[in-house]
Amino acid sequence: MRPFAYVSARDVESAVEAVAEHPGARFLGGGTNLVDLMREGVERPRTVVDISRLPLTGIEELPDGGLRIGALVRNSRLAADPLVRSRCPVLAQAVLNGASGQLRNMATVGGNLLQRTRCPYFYDTASRCNKREPGAGCDAMEGFSRSAAVLGTSGECIAAHPSDMCVALAALDAVVEVRSVRGTRRVPFGELHRLPGGTPHIETALDGDELITAVELPPLPLAARSRYRKVRDRASYAFALVSVAAALEVRDGAVADVRLALGGVGAKPWRAHEAEALLRGAPAVEESFRRAADAEFAAAEGRSAPTGMPDSRRAADADGQGARAGNEFKIELGRRTVVAVLRRLADEGSGA
Amino acid sequence: MVEVRLRVNGTAREIDVEPQVSLLDALRERLGMTGTKKGCDQGACGACTVLADGERICSCLALAVQYDGREITTIEGVDHPLQAAFTEHDGFQCGYCTPGQICSAIGMLAEHKAGAPSAVTEELDGDGAELTDDEIRERMSGNLCRCGAYNGIVDAVREVAGP
Ligand code: FES
Ligand code: FES
């Protein structure tokens, strides 16, 4: 790993000052993403400001009934918190579906939000990657895209945002509190992550010297009936091919309110606004769920197998189209997962 | 160089390390404690699992400087019924993943005892799921075994977890 200067911050003020003073400095929380990327030579900060000892570790109820989660709350603590489990099970489930027990004990909430959007070509420094090196080109376009996004991509980058937690936070209308030497500001979750467009190396709306200090969840009674479902290549400890975070309230057979967000398919944590708009007021039946899912994925763009893939490998794939190496399959898988989660929430709701 | 003070298996240790040195390398290379293994060095296999103040972590992604002042338990400091159970149930073949499996299982049992749910826990609102085989497999999924001794590992953990 490339050497760097190390600063251990005592408090939030000295942390934001230290990063402001050292151009190119990075905050270090649990280290589960940054340390890995530094070891691979993908991230090369000259200064690392260790914030892991800052007292941002509380989970509190706000006067309006919302929740305030400190940026340094570890994933495992967040998922085990009784308020989180009862008020928004979708968030606890999303967190528990991410990474492994060891990593959840290390990883922080703020770090999860700022983990890099990535794909195998981003990690492989021998490949071209516009995110790693602006203007270099993208080897994923004609390569193995199984992990890549189908929504919100650009001609420069097709990497999917890898977080599970963020999918739930997108559904829950979270607000992110950010601190820098210029003061404190609040960023709605939907505006935190940027689509790649022509600048895939810029992933969030935050400046490099801004520190996430907390995530707030507004009161959302419907979140008490919510779920996260993750579809992946193995039963545990793998990134999502497709994931769905949803909360649903059914009244008199119709959708009274709904929150829906998708993971594994979007260049950023994907709030399914189109689907939500179609669902509100619609009969809470499979047909409406399917129509909403179709609408959300209408603009999706999938990829088939890499162009250079030998015919023998293509033939080995189930449909002979090299589908496993591409990501076209995510579109139908995504639609079906949305329908399955909504159906389950509707069934549970009618039984209550 | 940064001075780092650790308690490792109950003994106070002081080392000078460059900030980029992982806790794993500090244990193995600086303190000569090679019980903790390096598999992937990127958080993907769990071979490097140690306990920090009783919580399991991947020491390969932990910078030693971040753990200044903490209590670290490695396999060298473990004396636990899991060890006999692994032998009893063939919970290993080559043994490379075993120190990580044991440390991880100790941390996992403590998490479960404290009521922490997992991704396969159906009733999140309840106060702790029964430690079924599905629960054990899910909670131990951060530890890979290239020899595929998973069935033995699950048997060993189930026996120690008790009814
Ligand atoms: S060596 Fe740390 S997880 Fe593999
Ligand atoms: S016993 Fe050989 S890797 Fe697990």
From TrEMBL, chain B:
SUPFAM superfamilies: 2Fe-2S ferredoxin-like, CO dehydrogenase ISP C-domain like. InterPro entries: 2Fe-2S-bd (IPR002888), 2Fe-2S-bd_dom_sf (IPR036884), 2Fe-2S_ferredoxin-like_sf (IPR036010), 2Fe-2S_ferredoxin-type (IPR001041), 2Fe2S_fd_BS (IPR006058), Aldehyde_Oxdr_Iron-Sulfur (IPR052914), Beta-grasp_dom_sf (IPR012675). Gene3D superfamilies: 3.10.20.30, [2Fe-2S]-binding domain (1.10.150.120). Keywords: Iron, Metal-binding, Oxidoreductase. Residues 2-78 form the 2Fe-2S ferredoxin-type domain. Pfam families: Fer2, Fer2_2. It comes from the Bacteria. This is Carbon-monoxide dehydrogenase small subunit. It comes from Streptomyces daqingensis.
